[in-house]
Write a structure and sequence with these properties.
The protein has about 400 residues and is an alpha/beta fold. The chain is about 45% helix and about 15% strand. Strand 4 and strand 5 form a beta hairpin. Helix 7 packs across helix 8.
Length: about 400
Amino acid sequence: MSEQKTVVVLFNYGGGMRGLIPAHIMAKIEEKTGLRMAEMVDIFTGPSTGAILNAALNIPHDRDPTRPKFRARHMVRFYEREGINIFPPDRFRDFRGFVHDFNNRTMKIGQLQKLMQHGHYNPAYLSKCLKDLYGDRKLSETLKSLVIPVYNIDGEQLELVEEAGETPDTPVHTQNNFMDRGGHAVWLKNIQQRRNQRKTPDVSLRDAILASTAAPTYFPCHHFKAECPHTQTTKHYSGIDGSIFDNPCISYHGAIRQHLDAGTRVIMILLGTGYTLRSIKKEDWNSYGGLGVVDPVNDLPLINILFHAPESALIESFRQELGDDLFVFNKSLVAEVGKPDAVNMAIDDASDGNLKSLSNFSDTILEEQSDDFDRLCNILVQNRDETPAKESLWNKTRSILQKVS
């Protein structure tokens, strides 16, 4: 019968300007292999700034639509050039957010609320940058399979399915025990694998990415619509940062695995933006109080825990399942705090000094994991060279099986 099929999955983490770290690492991969990421990777996934990278690397070239328009080094320059405009220096952003919250709790002064702008960055420039990157391309036009995670805060768009035993008089309908008014995770997918395929939603890449990058307190939620061919409906979403729920373990089990044939060998590459979760002494935690656990002064301890807890619960079983085919390029930023030229853990520092620190940080990751890097590059080149032969063999085998059946 046919040889084992291999699928390469790339997960790029979120992290704003820290997206420069995976951009640098991918540039090194392309430099060493002589190939572009879209020539080596079958499925791209990841939220927020990772989604920006994934989508850009899958844009077809204007002159040759079978090849990608951008290399990873182009995305390095994108962050270096546009970062300062997406995240302009604003010493009063936190103050405006504080005044807005105070006004919202007490005075309810409309004009003051407008002036304070809720403490968000203006998303107009980010939208312009994505327009320059993607043009009017849609999700369905990407070169390889692409998964863009978005959290929809408006639960009215759930596809409702009445549970067994419910009647029209049931006060609340549910779908898989989710109430119809709650928010929910959304996978916007263009899947080119064979199993469990659905037609790709008709949505622009720019809308999908603007929603996936709408980090709470940094950008407002992004409202957009998508035409869903499988239900012949139009859905309206109010999307915020996919990092709210997404991590490589969830992405693999929730959005990718269902599309893979049984027995498929999965090579999964995780390119991080630096671990930022700090440990907390019990005395400090107990002293925070109700508001202290979400206070920026304390580094948002509860929010950071909620972001990282699901991955920490799943990562070991994930490692056991994939074994040597799991490649993780990441390291802690917390350990670097206080050192000269340390990376700023904030997602919005686009200063020249931090750009240099991000570049140095990515170099350090590759230096510390040089053996893994070399092994991965060899696997990627080998798998790419074997893919045409494997595809031909698979198509012949499938044709024979269909005739027999």
